[in-house]
Amino acid sequence: MFWEKKCKSCNSKADSKWLFCPNCGITLKELKEPVVSRQVDNGSHQLDKVMEMKIPRFMLKPPLKAKGVSITITADDMSTPRINVQTYGEHRHHENKKDEKPVRIPKVTEEPETTVQRVNNKQIITLNLPDVKSLEDIEIKQLHQSVEIKAFAGDKAYFKLIPTPSHATVNNEFKDGVLKIEVMK
Fold first, then answer.
1. CB atoms within 10 A of CB 164
2. Do residue 113 and residue 79 come from a single domain?
3. How far apart are CA 30 and CA 129, in angstroms?
4. Do 30 and 81 fall into the same domain?
5. In the beta sheet, which residues pair with residue 68?
6. What is the pLDDT of residues 24-59, one digit of tens each?
7. How far apart are CA 9 and CA 101, in angstroms?
8. pLDDT tens for each residue of 131-176
């Protein structure tokens, strides 16, 4: 045919619906006008064309999908404004987490009296926490190389950071205002 579409790089036939040439892989976005005549190119001329175009052979990143929120506020004379909120794309709705404990903000923070005993491969740490009622009022977090202890007693808080070996197992027991922590290597 006289008005057929061809790849500018390798001169092979190309469909207008294709994004890439099936023969050489060059993008065909520039093939909007039909090729009028056949070009006879040798191998070096084809290579020069590819280098001139400087187009990547494959698109590595997929096209971005737009997502977000559109807010439109319109008002006529002497009327209340109309507010239109639209979401588009993959918009996630965030829900408030109601199960979280309220954050306690104490008036006074103290470091509790602490004694440390070493028995074989165990380390027994005893913390004196007066006015703390139960284990529910104590937060124990095992970090990489330490144990963080927070205890709450009314308007008073106790805080202690105890260094421990990494990958140690920690057991605890609370009775009569005394917290015992057993760290095993």
1. 20
2. no
3. 77
4. yes
5. 88
6. 888 776 544 444 334 444 566 666 666 666 555 555
7. 66
8. 899 999 999 998 888 889 999 988 899 999 998 888 888 889 999 8
Same domain assignment for residues 1 and 54? yes
Determine the Cα–Cα distance for residues 31 and 12; give it in Å rounded to an integer.
12
For residues 183 and 147, the answer to whether their CB atoms sit within 8 Å is yes
Of 72, 63, 64, 55, residue with least CA distance to 7: 55
Same domain, yes or no: 67 and 118:
no
Q: Are residues 2 and 72 in the same domain?
A: yes
d(CA 145, CA 7): 63
- Of 90, 117, 150, the residue at which a domain comes to its end is 90
DSSP state of 135: G
Domain carrying residue 14? 1-90
The b/e string for 122-151 (b: 16+ C-beta within 10 A; e otherwise) is ebebebebeebeeeebbeeeeeeebbebbb
Beta strand 68-74 pairing with 108-110: unpaired
pTM equals: 0.45
